[in-house]
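Most newcomers find our protein records easier to grasp once they have seen one. To make this concrete, we reproduce a full record directly below:

…
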Amino acid sequence: MEEKKQEEVSEQEIIDQPNEDETTENSQAEVVEEDSELDQLREEKEEIHNRLLRLQADYDNFRRRTQKEKEADRKYKAQSLVEELIPVLDNFERALQVEVDGESAQNFASGMKMVYDQFQAALDKEGVEEIPAQGEVFDPHLHQAVMQVEDDNYESNVVVEQLQKGYRLNDRVIRPAMVKVNQ
């Protein structure tokens, strides 16, 4: 009886143990499965890496754009103030062109000239400059033609007379110069 049990156990062990073909198939299946998992992980890694690179590029672009905006804000921070002050400057210049009689009026006019010079220096410091006009070639970006004349002393398309001064802040035109242009 014991022998029979031993035979049964032996047969059972043989049945339970996989044969070599099954072991090879199982290990091959595991290898294929591991390879597919590895490929999938590599694809995920590559996708995440690409997303990270795009995110980094977006951040760099954002940083550059905000830096340019800050520079533009600093460069043109005085634009609205300059736009308000240009008519004041025009009136100042007209007032200084008036002829005055008497010593007290002369002193007043010289004091006003000093204030005008100080005002002009403050605008220059902020980057405000007058746009050259008379004798220059007409540029529609800098000049506003309000009249055309025929003058033999000037070439065609040249500014003959400046009617109102034009100004720019750094490289931005605040007000174009009003001019007469030769035909």
In short: The longest strand covers residues 143-149.
